[in-house]
Design a protein that fits this description.
Strand order of the largest sheet: 1-3-2
Structural class: mainly alpha
Distance between the termini: 48 Å
Largest sheet: 3 strands, antiparallel
Number of strands: 3
Number of helices: 10
Shape: globular
Order of helices and strands: HEHHEEHHHHHHH
Length: about 230
């Protein structure tokens, strides 16, 4: 099998998962995906098996492959992992980050601020789907660039293999109301503080700020999902 075709198939399906186009519970049909991607079913099957090993897809005996539904306990576990990994990465980045990397993080934060302003100016006080997608794209880029700035390839490898960053943000794409104007503003302010700690080359302060941000995000998301569950019951 041409390994590059399996990689293309993997990247295609993974992008659909990350964007929310392939929602939890959706069946992944090999032949349909093969036609969409322009490959045979063999590389698609390989890609789905890889996604299954990463916990993003589950095989139901006799039924096929489905996009895995991330539950609250899954998210809670991922937040615990993120806190351990990214707090460490922030401390390391405070020692090694370059001016170019700082400028890139500043640019991403500016994009997030623009979205925060749009949410603040809206009549309902929370994001719509398009704003949420833009916001989460910025969030994911910011955190991934920060991990890269740590200059620790082993740490980056663990983050990538566990999809500790992407899975949290992918799960939120289906719930735009999580992102209120208040949360967006507070998040931008916290990231500005973190950037200052990185500029000051203050590892312990960067570690504490990152941990605080992740734990606040964990509380916000889990509380929202708990509330949604109560409203449906």
């Amino acid at each position: 099998m041409d390994q590059s075709l399996a990689e293309i198939s993997y990247d295609y399906i993974r992008a659909k998962l990350a964007s929310g186009e392939f929602m939890p519970g959706k069946q992944l049909v090999n032949r349909t995906l093969a036609v969409e991607i322009g490959v045979s079913v063999i590389p698609v099957r390989e890609a789905i098996n890889r996604l299954s090993s990463e916990g993003l897809v589950e095989h139901v005996p006799g039924a096929g492959a489905y996009v895995r539904k991330t539950n609250r306990q899954d998210l809670n576990n991922i937040y615990v992992l993120r806190d351990a990994l990214e707090s460490c990465a922030a401390a390391e980045a405070a020692q090694y980050i370059t001016e170019d990397q700082l400028e890139e993080l500043e640019f991403i934060l500016d994009l997030a601020k623009q979205t925060a302003k749009q949410i603040r100016d809206s009549s309902n006080g929370y994001s719509n789907k398009r704003q949420m997608d833009r916001w989460l794209d910025c969030e994911q880029q910011f955190h991934e660039r920060l991990v890269e700035a740590s200059r620790n390839p082993l740490l980056a490898k663990v983050v990538k293999e566990n999809r500790a960053i992407a899975m949290v943000f992918a799960a939120q794409r289906y719930h735009p109301r999580i992102l209120t104007a208040k949360i967006a503003q507070e998040t931008c302010e916290s990231k500005a503080e973190l950037l200052q700690a990185l500029r000051d080359h203050a590892p312990e302060r960067a570690r504490q700020l990152m941990s605080f941000q992740i734990q606040r995000g964990r509380k916000t998301v889990i509380n929202f999902l708990n509330q949604q569950g109560h409203e449906r019951s």
